[in-house]
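**User:** My hope is that you can spare some time for a protein that puzzles me. As I understand it, each token names a local backbone shape. I would be glad if you read both lines and explained how they fit together. The protein I mean follows directly.
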Amino acid sequence: MAKTVLNIIVTFLILLILQVTVFSHICLFNVAVPFVFLYAILRLPMSLAPSWVMIIGFFSGLFIDIFTDTPGMNALASTILSALRRPVLKMYVNRDDDITSDAPSAKSLGGFTYAKYAFTLILAYCLVLFIIEASSFTGFSLTMMRIVFSTILSFALVLGIDSITGERQNDKKTPSL
């Protein structure tokens, strides 16, 4: 249990620092911004109380807001993403028996189910963030492009991170001599 908690904390810290120092300064074609820190929120254990998930989501978004000069926008979007995690997972997974691990991943949910889960939550995050940022309908087409392309870019990065850092406990096999 302590190893799991330490693993979650280290993952959060690494992704938050990478988001602030590297990924927040990337804007492809002036529309696509990658949000890799969302992976840490998506991977929080489902057994964690929803209130704790929302607190963690709020403070991770607040951390991003402090260092990127976005007053509360990431905190709100991250809190909404945290609140939607469980209902979105229940929407795609009919029974709790279908989940093989407490933390959602491509390995525990199956690749397609995890992809739907991650895409839906990243889309919700981008919708909230960019609609708040625009705060008007004057640049509607640019806002929609930012939502779509940031969602796609963040989704691809989250799937890539999951494939690299996914659960490897079951992959360890004893070497045969």
Observations:
- The chain has one domain: 2-165.
- Residues 169-177 have pLDDT under 50 and may be disordered.
- The helical segments are 2-21, 38-42, 50-68, 73-92, 106-109, 111-134, 140-165.
